[in-house]
Design a protein that fits this description.
The chain is mainly α and 429 residues long. It has 21 helices and no strands. It has one domain. The chain is globular, with a radius of gyration of 22 Å. InterPro entries: DctM, TRAP_DctM.
Length: 429
């Protein structure tokens, strides 16, 4: 029963994806087929579809998506770019560093890699082009830096992970992602400086450097957003779900009354687009509940985990195998989908090796961050190449350098768990 059902579940799911079936539909069909054929109770399908999304922490997900889009449309990115340019100054590699820093900061507002990359690409790529940066390099750099958004809190991906792994709370995951997220972003500065100095990129284009205090006054409302969100979480003023609501209303106030860049039509579009994005994610999570129920009831996930454990008894080798598997999966699927598909398999292994669920969640998320700018299905790179008007194939040579740099940060966090665990423990999570 287990062997036959496992073949139907995993190979059926893979075949549906290969045929171009939407992920949510592939998860639902594969799970339902196993439940029906193996007689596991077909009436469990609607129940598990509902239970998949009937979780309180998931309320934060659509609201953080809305908050991120509010800040993006309010013009926060442009003002933070000016402020970062005033801080970094005009020198070789400066604009590349500004792009990285702005992506990291906006990640602390949006929680979404593609949204982060899109906002920064539209503002930064024209200026970087004037200073000699090739479009291909600029698009790749921004896509890579934008991937830190799923590590630096508030992260939509980490919220989903906390729902699937209740032992890892949202505040602990948010705190755990800070240092690895910063390391991941800073690692990109090395190839940026190297190629800038080698090729002479970043010479002044004649535009004056923004004045520090003027740019600071313009950007202060955006700079306060992460302080309000994370400060409120730390002091216990509001929960993660309430923090999402506060962030959304703060973005609305900034866009309408402070910067005056959001009209009623803009607000309507933001509401519609954020609802569409959230609905897609929720449908995937819902139908993944059917897939997870079929696999766990059948025992397929435990069998798959036992197969992986049969390859080696070494913890280091097992981590390397899991990292390779997740890197490949991250090239093809988004972070939320990877969690939903692979966590049921990896949780038994995590329990056997007694890995901390917060640390393991950060490791998984760093793998997913790398996948967001690794071709062929790099979602961030799809966004930035479209903005730059280039093909994804032209970015491969630069993407390999960025992947190597961020892999270095991943190896550090894997080898030294305290990099992810120090802040949560210090804050008492």
């Amino acid at each position: 029963m287990i062997a036959e059902g496992s073949v139907i579940l995993f190979l059926g799911f893979a075949l549906l994806l290969a045929l171009g079936t939407p992920l949510a539909v592939a998860l639902g069909i594969a799970g339902s087929a196993v439940i029906l054929i193996e007689g596991l109770g077909i009436m469990s399908v609607p129940t598990n579809a509902y239970n998949g999304i009937a979780k309180y922490p998931l309320l934060a997900l659509p609201v953080f998506v809305l908050a991120g889009m509010m800040f993006e449309r309010a013009g926060v990115a442009l003002r933070i770019v000016r402020f970062a340019s005033a801080v970094v100054g005009r020198r070789r590699g400066a604009q590349g560093i500004v792009a990285i820093l702005v992506c990291m900061f906006l990640g602390g507002i949006s929680g979404s890699g593609p949204a982060d990359a899109a906002a920064v690409a539209m503002v930064m790529i024209p200026g970087m082009l004037r200073q000699g940066y090739p479009k291909e390099f600029s698009a790749t750099l921004i896509a890579a830096a934008g991937s830190t958004a799923i590590l630096i809190p508030p992260s939509v991906a980490l919220i989903v992970y906390s729902v699937l792994v209740p032992a890892a709370s949202v505040p602990a995951l948010f705190a755990g992602g800070v240092i690895p997220g910063i390391l991941a972003g800073l690692s990109l500065i090395l190839p940026t400086l190297y190629f800038s100095w080698k090729n002479g990129w970043g010479q002044s284009d004649g535009e004056p450097t923004p004045r520090f205090w003027d740019s600071f006054r313009e950007a202060i409302w955006g700079l306060l957003a992460p302080v309000i969100i994370l400060g409120g979480l730390r002091t216990g003023i509001f929960t993660p779900t309430e923090a999402a609501v506060v962030a959304a209303f703060y973005g609305l106030i900034v866009g309408v009354f402070v910067y005056r860049t959001l009209s009623l039509r803009d607000i309507y579009r933001v509401l519609v687009e954020s609802a569409e994005i959230s609905a897609v994610v929720m449908i995937i999570i819902s139908l993944a509940g059917v897939f997870a129920h079929a696999g766990s009831t059948l025992g397929a996930f435990d069998a798959f985990a036992a197969m992986l454990l049969g390859f080696t008894s070494s913890e280091a080798v097992m981590l390397a195998m899991i990292t390779l598997m997740l890197l490949i999966a991250g090239m093809l699927l988004d972070a939320v989908s990877v969690y939903l598909v692979f966590l049921p398999i990896l949780l038994p292994i995590m329990a056997i090796y007694k890995w901390d669920p917060v640390w393991f969640g950060i490791i998984m998320t760093m793998n997913m961050a790398i996948g967001q700018f690794t071709p062929p299905m790099a979602v961030n790179l799809m966004v930035t190449t479209r903005v730059a008007g280039i093909t994804m194939e032209s970015t491969v040579r630069w993407a390999l350098w960025m992947v190597a740099s961020m892999l270095g940060a991943l190896i550090l966090v894997t080898a030294f768990p305290s990099l992810a665990m120090w802040l949560p423990r210090t804050l008492g999570y």
